[in-house]
Amino acid sequence: MDLARPRGTEDVFPEAAARWRALEAVCHGLARRYGYGELRTPTFEHSEVFHRFLGDATDVVQKETYDFKDRGERELTLRPEGTAGAVRAFLQAGLQGGALPRKLCYVTLSAFRYERPQAGRLREHHQFGCEAFGSADPTTDAELIALVADLLRELGVRDFAVRLNSIGDPACRPAYLEALRDYYRPLLPGLCHDCQVRFDHNPLRLLDCKKDREAVAGAPRPADHLCADCAAHFATLRGYLDDIGIDHTIDHTLVRGFDYYTRTVFEFVSGELGAQNSILGGGRYDGLVESMGGPPVPAAGFAVGMERLLTVASTLAAPDPALDVYVASDDRREALAACQALRRAGLAADMDPLSRSLRAQMRAADRSGASVAVIRAAPERERGVAVVRPLRSPGAAQREVAWTALLADPRDQVGA
Ligand SMILES: [Zn+2]
Ligand SMILES: [Zn+2]
Fold this sequence. Notes:
about 425 residues; alpha+beta; BirA Bifunctional Protein, domain 2; Rossmann fold; 2 domains; eight-stranded mixed beta sheet; 16 strands; binds zinc ion
């Protein structure tokens, strides 16, 4: 048909939306427990916001953004993630001059990337993320990791593991990158095309290569080249994680490509996802606020695709039934009056607007998920009553209630 939704987007109908709301409630609840307040930023920003965040144009992420010009010839971009907008908002509100740390989160943030939908990834997807601004202390890193662990536990994901690494900072990384290049230089001719590009533009990402595993295995490790401050930060973080009972392993190949990433990198993986087993990543980006034009403000955070959380979640609470009371009547005016009384009393009530037979209306009542049907036809009308029939409790008897009482005090009369 002509009016199909664009590729890589989804329609969410009420049954699925109820699961989304349950997931959102879990995210909001965790953010609150950990002291992260909700930030909502625009769906699009000036393109520059993301260009600074995503780095130079050789990076594939940069080529996946939705860029457009508005009618005023401004260059705008649909956000591909949440962090850049959060930093922009933080700076624009002058929060760097206020009380720090400032802990912000976003829930169901829509993010846009022009990717091949075959890869199972959507062009519009949604993220939950937390960003802590103004703390370089490893307690902040530990807290973010603990938040994610709680999130997965609360969603019923039992089989997950935490991988951790430290990639140093501007004090120690240049020397490390030199050592890395020295190691890779003689190997380059035998390596994949991506590695050739990374060697020049983004050497840390050489450790990311899934093809040249042998080269990666012998490479110098970031954690072995940390300066004293970075080494202390890493050791302290690991001690904190042990203190609060979070098992973790060091993954020496876990890296982030951009210069503003510093020290902590973490990733949660799960066997429940098969081959594509990384659930989410996060870490520290002490250089980001400065790289986006602000003063030096240390920061750390994570983001996770919520569609992915929905696929791994096993414990999301069953949604409330759509309906509490179905009003079946041969008189639509009466049915509407009863529905309105029930709705004003806080109950979800519905009726048949199509004038179908009472028998058809009772079938609709059964299908609706309502716990009670209110029935009113000629025999009831003659006696001034309505029948209240339980639909979900087998064996419970139906009873009659006075029609005027039903309208005056609907909650009591239907037993809700
Ligand atoms: Zn490679
Ligand atoms: Zn360092």
